[in-house]
Fold this sequence. Notes:
The structure holds two protein chains of two kinds. By secondary structure, chain A is mainly β. Helix content of chain A is 14%, strand content 42%.
Amino acid sequence: MKLSHLLPAAAVILLGVVGAAPCVAQDAPVITVRKGDQIALAVGTLAGSDGVAVTPILQNDLSIAGWFGLVDAARAGYVVTGTAQGGSLQGTVADRNGGVVLSKTYAGGRAGAHAFADDIVNTLTGKKGIASSRVAFVGTRTGKKEIYLADYDGSNITQLTREGSISVGPNLSPDGRKLSYTGYQSGFADIYVIDIGSGRRVKAVSAPGTNTGGVFSSDGARMAVIISKDGNPELYITGAEGGGARRLTRSRGAEAGGSWSPDGSEIVFASDSGGAPQLYRVSSGGGAPRQISVGMGYATDPSWSPDGTKIAFTTRGSGGFEVAVHDLQSGQTRLLPSGGDAEDPVWGANSRHIIYAKGGALYLLDSINGRNLKVIDGVGRLSEPTWTR
Amino acid sequence: MNARILFPLLLATFLALGISGCSKFKKKDAGAATGDYDFVSGSPLPERSGASFFAANVDRSMFPAVYFGYDSYSVEPGERGKVEQIASFLKGGGKSVIFAGFTDERGSPEYNRTLGERRAQALREELISMGASAADIQTVSFGEEMPADSGGGESAWAKNRRAEIGVIK
């Protein structure tokens, strides 16, 4: 062997390896805040005996929505008026020429204001609103981890479970009628499903080992579940109350955190089968999972947006745990301005807002304009949000 | 070895390395690096026996906890002594144990639940390979719940990344 031939070859190999490294290490850009593109909207104080109480709820919803610039009537493209009294809300939206584009009567109180806000969003943008949505999460107020439910803006917090054990990992069905969670009252991790309306609860999955992460499909008919009975945590699909478990993954690592594509044809999940946890997508009918190249060395807790185009997830970078969004069409990933210690992002119905947990409270983040609001706290340390669509 | 053969060989190696190194991150969802999906499964768990890890009929003090590295479920060489103690106890059968997996507080609770289960099951596979019966070992994961040390920082986290051994009396 001649060394003089070998050296250039070795140098080429080194260059090749070093040259490839920046592909691994590149940082995703932080999003730039974009103003403009907003609809100028005037929301004056509603008339009627409940007008003063209901108006700020409506204004808050429309401000959070992100689609509108709230301005005075003289500069507005659309004017919101209404009357709130006697347990109902009559709401009207007119364009600058006085042409009525929305006129409807709602229930009174907070629910009516939220419903009116969602109708305004839908009428003027064609998008689904998030004002009537609900959020479930884990709270520690009693000294034990229990599941709580609240409006998206943090009002109407109610305690759902009273096990005095460990109740964690809640997942709401998109329509908000069912909630699954992981409960330890048997001494093992089992999945329970609660019918929110009736309060009826069933033990849905209690196979040997650990059962967790019962995530409902868009139609609420199926759950993606992690079951370890075969000797390794694997992703399964079951019916809405357990039963008929069908195994989807066969890996050496730990699978976690499934999220369904809107049409139910695929599930995205995290797996550390290749080393640090990464995201994979698999057909809900079976087949080999494919890695989603998010360009981050660590990715867990995927949430597939209702419009199907994006996946939010938790990543770990120099700033600690942060929320990132991967665009499935462009293949680009960007970090959202969540700051460190952020985890468990979930998309809202509008595929624009994300709720995530940070420092024991829940935050609402607008992925377009970067607005970040603490929305739910006060029942101990909060974690693991799940959001109706 | 002939350098004229070696050079193209090395060049081919470089090309392969260069392509695989970059394409993973540049190609849009190309299905590169699908992980190890040929793995069929570990050893199936036995049916639950009725005992639960924190029940009065489970002795959790007979064996010391087995510790793990960050984000890892490999049974470390330094923990071998502990594992051998458990193996000699289980050898011959007739004993039932529950391995409970735990993690530190970093990372999301759901990921930590499955990581904790993977730790309990890694310890279980180790013991099965040393002659223990699969039917005698159940597993559960508590994830980041019930830390052994509720302080922060690496010294606390290292104590929390563990599998505890409960012997059913």
